Amino acid sequence: MAMKKTDLEKNKALKLGNAMKLATADRFGKGAAAPKLDRREQRKLDQAQGLVPFACKLESELVEQLKTRADAHAGGMNGLLDELLKRGLAADAS
Q: At the top level of its lineage, which domain of life is listed (predicted)?
């Protein structure tokens, strides 16, 4: 059975729409980024290093200071906080 001209055009439009969706998967540099680990894999790596999640509430001014220092620190925010807490606890124990 032959298809009508309108049905052919609808199928072409659907094919084009699907092709466009697939083509934009790497849009805005998402494809260029390094593959990120999912939460479960990251948690396993952290546990192997002996890291434990620790959450607390801080004043916004202090957080801004930490962010600016963390940008220049080699270990990022985690490394900076680790270093500062160790220094603070060592000074407190003395």
A: Bacteria
Q: Give yes or no for a contact between 66 and 81, defined as CB atoms under 8 angstroms apart.
A: yes
CB 85 within 8 A of CB 77: no
Q: What is the C-alpha separation between 13 and 24, in angstroms, rounded?
A: 17
| Per-residue pLDDT tens over the stretch 11-48 | 999 998 888 887 765 666 655 556 677 889 988 988 99
Angle subtended at Cα 68 by Cα 78 and Cα 72, rounded to the nearest 5 degrees:
70
Answering whether pTM is above 0.85, one says no
38 half-sphere exposure, CB direction, 13 A CA radius:
1
pLDDT tens column, 52-87:
888 899 999 999 999 999 999 998 999 999 999 999
Q: What are the structural domain ranges in the chain?
A: 54-94
